[in-house]
Structure prediction request, 246 residues.
Amino acid sequence: MRIKTFATLVVAAGLLLPLMTLANEGESFPHAGNDPYNQASLQRGARNFMNYCSGCHSAKFVRYNRLAKDLAIPEAELRANLMFTSDKPADTIQSAMPAQDAIKWFGVAPPDLSLITRSRGTDHVYAYLMSFYRDASRPTGVNNTVLVGTAMPHVLADLQGVQTAVFKTAAVAGAPEFEKFELPQPGVLSPEKYAEFVRDTVNFLEYMAEPIQTTRRDLGVWVILFLMLFTGFAYLLYKEFWRDVR
Ligand code: HEC
Prediction:
């Protein structure tokens, strides 16, 4: 009986722990809906990142050749389309912009993005990239509802267009409350296509933050199956040992 209780506890803990970490992650952002198993999406995300982000942001924990291997990108294509700041595949991804210049231009250095989805959460980063809006009082001409007063310009304005934000006039004194976005000036992508573009990009950012993630998950399933099987055998053995004693 005791073994049974113990086994139940182990299985329950195995099921509950991942749920608890999930619950911790959940701020009030809608789910990014990305899929780290979708390699085509990751490849598009890598292309987006190199073209639209690596001008300012580095990803100093990620090497080009590792990326090419994980995402099945042939070396010729890697060199031609993805490596802008280096010609050595074993190099890590550096930004094209010297940190000193960045501070001069933006007031802050753009953070390294290798681990950004781990520190902020995937959904948070997705929401950030969806939430730039016109604000003439800012030096960049835009503001952001997720990171108010952000120093980052809306680098995807050509694609998304520039949204305007509608705020509820606050009933009580205090900051007006965000209500919704409008898109008076659309970009070259439809809102759906823009969301896909951001989803792919964020998918790639999540991959960079933990390149081993999919392997770990796949392995995890086998580990749980093994533990269940092992518990079964342990239980049979327990029955066998105690049969004569009882
Ligand atoms: C023109 C330079 C520039 C480009 C290009 C750029 N960024 Fe940024 N980014 C910045 C700066 C500057 C900050 C710091 C903002 C701050 O702290 O207010 C920043 C901050 C961020 C942050 C951190 C936000 C937070 O919660 O602290 C994320 C995530 C981010 N950028 C993602 C991206 C992605 C993804 C791209 C490509 C689609 C990109 N950036 C392209 C300049 C840039």
